[in-house]
Amino acid sequence: MTASGVAGAARGLFGLGASWxxxxxxALNTFIEASRNRAFVGLGVAAVGLVVSSIALSxxxxxxxxxxxxVDFGLxxxxxxxxxxxxxxxxxLIFKEVDRKTFYLVLxxxxxxxxxxxxxFAGLLAVLAVAVVVMGAAWILSLVARDVPVNxxxxxxxxxxxxxxxxxxxxxxxxxxxxxxxxSGVFTxxxxxxxxxVPLLDELLRAKKGVLVRxxxxxxxxxxxxxTFPDLSVFHVGKELILGVPVGWDYVGGVALYCAGYCVFFxxxxxxxxxxxxxx
Amino acid sequence: xxxxxxxxGLSKTFRPPFRLKKVRAVRSVSFTVTPGEVFGxxxxxxxxxxxxxxxxxxxxxxxxGRVAVLGGPPTSIEVKARVGFLPEQPYFYDYLKPTELLxxxxxxxxxxxSTRHRRIHELLDLVGLAHAKxxxxxxxxxxxxxxxxxxxxxxxxxxxxxxxxxxxxxxPIGRKEVADLIASLKAGGKTIFFSSHILADIxxxxxxxxxxxxxxxxxxxxxxxxxxxxxxxxxAVVRARPGGAPPRVETWPEGTRVxxxxxxxxxxxxxxxxxxxxxxxxxxxxxxxVGAGDRRLSLEALIMxxxxxxxxAREVAR
Lengths: 280, 318
Prior knowledge:
The structure holds two protein chains of two kinds.
Chain A: H1 3-35, H2 38-60, H3 66-99, H4 103-106, H5 113-145, H6 153-176, H7 181-206, H8 211-214, H9 216-228, H10 238-243, H11 249-276
Helix pairs in contact in A: 1-5, 2-3, 2-5, 3-5, 3-6, 3-7, 5-6, 5-11, 6-7, 6-11, 7-9
Chain B: E1 5-14, E2 23-33, E3 38-42, H1 49-56, E4 64-69, H2 77-80, E5 83-86, H3 98-108, H4 113-126, H5 142-154, E6 160-164, H6 172-187, E7 191-195, H7 199-205, E8 208-213, E9 216-222, H8 223-227, E10 233-239, E11 257-262, E12 265-271, H9 275-284, E13 288-294, H10 299-317
Parallel strand pairs in B: 3-7, 3-8, 5-6, 6-7
Antiparallel strand pairs in B: 1-2, 1-4, 8-9, 10-12, 10-13, 11-12
């Protein structure tokens, strides 16, 4: 390698390091904002309350079904509230910066607009990680309190819930790079609902009769949806936990890659739009 | 020498939401800011000052024209690292303390922890906010927020400062302190580009100005030249003996005229080159000369005149 090549590589590495420092600073700000936001703290308290309330719900279940209710309802509550946090925060954060004009102070600093989007995403991932850890701890405590056996696969289930919330965050950030919060929220929830319905659609496509067999246009659209939209069912292993089917780290790794692919896609689109945007 | 700011034929057109008609915020604006000068950006509301400043700071892209800041595009990371910017009525992350805000911005400038710590405390002392460093910004008054805005604009010790209405929201003492700060930054070799409605501060601080009106450039140049109205004139204030008549200047050098100040005092205005002979005639005619100097328009009169001219031209065009 020539001297100029070494210098270029060093500059590249330095640039990458500097870029990471800026993304880290913006992520830190996002994390502080969330942690000092009363609405977020309130949501966290509600989430823990919901998980703990699964204990009360399990009292109503038939005796041998109590463990199932605790595992299933608890995980469902964590997943739902993580997605709510992801949608609300993802949709509001960029809009708030534009609306309150705080971007006027940030964007003239030596920072790329793509780094601003990446910083918001990284900050929200940290917020979601804290939310999942707190809710997960409450969930596991509720299981211990009811003598339900706890196993390491439950940690993997929580990691998968976090991945799903990360994917939804990237979708919300993408929409909020150009749309109003209400529109972004509607679009993001739309993708979430379709993503949760992909296995159902897939089943209908494989059926021998029904509307997807009779109508070629509807069939084409359903096929396109299952081929392109993220299948959010891959993030849910509640059934496996209940049935005692092991969840391997190789499965978690595969889902991580699947999630990362979609996150990169939505964030790259968001960055592209955000880069061209005028801040009037 | 590379200009600190070079703007050539800058135009910016917006399309407001749900409207077909475009709005031309800035039209063919050109000016150059030399390193080390304090450059004033003047004009009434809606003149296009903030739009131009947003282009200079990379917040919006020009529709047409070329803009170079410190020799590069305003969106370049290297350029932005050398620029400090204070927006008009700055909005902050109000959940942060000033030290936290400056710390996050310091990280964006790539400062290490010890540099950030030192610089933050220096700047809070400089803008007089050391006593409030542990309060969150939501508890700050408008004037205090303006000072935080100045501190963050100075954080990277910039070569070029772009300040949008830096003196607004401050009490008289605060205004004087900030004006003194701008003067000391100029003395330290910084280039300062600032917009203001406060004409006295522009007069006091600026070497050169650009005057904008409805998106168009009306004047650019040294403040003294603009205030002279393109003419070099001098004036003498004279007083007559009790019961005396005003000076009769019909036969005196061309361009000489008399303005009454009160029944016994007059201002005699004359072309600069004729001032000596006129002064001599006044003394010979028995007038007491109580004052003399260069004839200048007030900045306010200059701006009013320029914007009135523009309105007049528009009326004629209709």
